[in-house]
Amino acid sequence: MTDAGYRRSAKSPRGEARRRELLDKVADDLGQNGLVDFSLRRAARAAGTTHKVLLYHFDGPEDLLTQAVLQLRDRRITRAVTAAAEQGGSLAARVRSMWPTLIGEESWVLDQAIGLAMYDAARYADLARSASRQYLPTLLAMCPDDWDEQRRTEVAELILGTLRGFLIEWRTSGDAAGIEAGFAALTRALEREEQT
């Protein structure tokens, strides 16, 4: 068992800064090399430290993996929100503008994380649940301000579920024409929703 005083220093401002620095490096490695063969030792090499230092700052390899995936998702969401803000216009146009970000840099790793959650839900279900918690506030914020909470939630969940389906289709079949047809239908549905 770790000495409580020793472990407490990990929560100091300096300890938190070090933890963020390590997490950034591990997330970068994950973004380049994916989840296959992820281990504490590989993470330590990527972070330029030892596995013991990582265990000091994280609650084991699964916690480190989860935190690194969350970090990659935060990056992806930031890029998607930026693309949507630059696009402006209708909700449909902003959602469509997010697609290149969703299939772009580091996206394959995040899709692997969802696959892990489906493959071994007992260990990795939180990776899928956390994706919803991370994306829904962004999608809710994109909905018109004059919509009530229930309507915003329903539309945000529709968008999230549809985009997840498109991502699975993209990764498994690469059917760009099918995804484009789906986007056309989603765009029409969102435009009708905004007009009512």
Features:
196 residues; mainly alpha; Tetracycline Repressor, domain 2; 81% helix; 0% strand; elongated; disordered N terminus; Homeodomain-like_sf; HTH_TetR
Task: Record the SSE blueprint.
Blueprint: H1 4-8, H2 13-33, H3 40-47, H4 51-57, H5 61-87, H6 91-102, H7 107-119, H8 121-142, H9 149-172, H10 176-195
Domain HTH tetR-type: 16-76
DNA-binding region: 39-58
Protein name: HTH tetR-type domain-containing protein
Give the gist of this structure.
This protein is mostly helical and 196 residues long.
If you had to describe this structure to a student in words, what would you say it looks like?
With 196 residues, this protein is mostly helical. The longest helix is centred in the middle third of the chain and has 27 residues. It is elongated, with a radius of gyration of 19 Å. The N terminus is likely disordered. The chain has ten helices and no strands. α2 packs across α5 and α8 crosses α9. It is 81% helix and 0% strand. It has one domain: Tetracycline Repressor, domain 2 (Orthogonal Bundle).
- Fraction of residues in H or I helices: over 70%
For the biggest sheet, the summary is: none
The rounded distance between the terminal residues' Cα atoms is 60 Å
Q: Quick one: overall form?
A: elongated
**Total beta strands:** 0
How many separate helices? 10
Structural class: mainly alpha
Assigned CATH class? Mainly Alpha
What is the fold-level CATH name, i.e. the topology? Tetracycline Repressor, domain 2
CATH homologous superfamily placement: Tetracycline Repressor, domain 2
Task: Please report which band the strand proportion falls in: under 5%, 5-15%, 15-25%, 25-35%, 35-45% or over 45%.
Answer: under 5%
Structural domains: how many: 1
**CATH architecture descriptor text:** Orthogonal Bundle
Low-confidence stretches at least 5 residues in length (pLDDT < 50)?
1-6
On the 0-100 scale, what is the average pLDDT?
A: 87
Rounded to the nearest angstrom, the radius of gyration is 19 Å
